[in-house]
Amino acid sequence: MVRDSNMPAENFNELLDWLDPDREVAAEKYLQLRQGLEKIFFWEHCLDPEGLTDQAIDRVVKNLPELRQNYEGDPQRYFFGVAKNLVREHRRFIINQTTLDDSAADKPIETKDEIIELREDCLDSCLNTLNSEQRKLILSYYKDTKRAKIEHRAQLAKGLGLSTEALRVRTSRIRVSLNQCLKQCLRKKQQGK
């Protein structure tokens, strides 16, 4: 899923203020929050963990003025609740996008291992549809985790002569085409079983 908005700087600052009054602590909490949300979406086998993370943050930011007045407790817990709802929406979306013919309805539901194997096969197939530059970029973009990922992406952007935001937009476009390819591939493989 594609992020539908760019967060204005003032909204981002307001979000950091809500996470913690100390700007450095707030920035660290924000990074941990992003990683936690991405993990949730990854563990739930969502097709675009990073895009769903952006969507969860955007949804919270839209309600931030009201939340700051009324919400009590750790803000991260609220984000995780929004993520839980997004996982449900994502599952409904996938189910609605997958058409079942009569013969497919009689077949047993795949196990998680079978689903993971299907996704890996489709991902390999879809990566091969990209040109070599796009494939190299997207694989490099998702190479590391945690702090190393942030540093690697900054170096990658610098090496390409781009800002980190421009790199993110470029990889987002590649990810959108990969997601479309993955959906089509999974649909074909599930119908072909």
Task: Explain what the structure shows.
With 193 residues, the protein is an all-alpha fold. It has two domains: 1-97; 108-193, Arc Repressor Mutant, subunit A (Orthogonal Bundle), CATH 1.10.10. The chain has ten helices and no strands. It has helices at 9-19, 23-43, 49-62, 64-70, 75-97, 102-105, 112-127, 132-141, 146-160, 164-192. Helix 1 packs across helix 2 (23-43) and helix 3 packs across helix 5. The longest helix is centred in the last third of the chain and has 29 residues, at 164-192.
Descriptive terms for the model:
193 residues; Arc Repressor Mutant, subunit A; 2 domains; 10 helices; 0% strand; globular
Can I get a quick summary?
The chain is mainly α and 193 residues long. It contains 10 helices and no strands. Helix 2 (23-43) crosses helix 3, helix 3 (49-62) crosses helix 5 (75-97) and helix 7 packs across helix 10 (164-192).
Q: What is the count of structural domains?
A: 2
Radius of gyration: 19 Å
Integer average pLDDT: 83
Strand content: under 5%
Q: Structural class per helix/strand content?
A: mainly alpha
- The beta-strand count equals 0
Helicity level, as a percent range? over 70%
What is the terminal separation in angstroms? 26 Å
Return residue spans where pLDDT drops below 50 for at least 5 consecutive residues.
1-5, 99-108
Q: List the helices and strands in order.
A: HHHHHHHHHH
In DSSP terms (H or I, runs of 4 or more residues), the helix count works out at 10
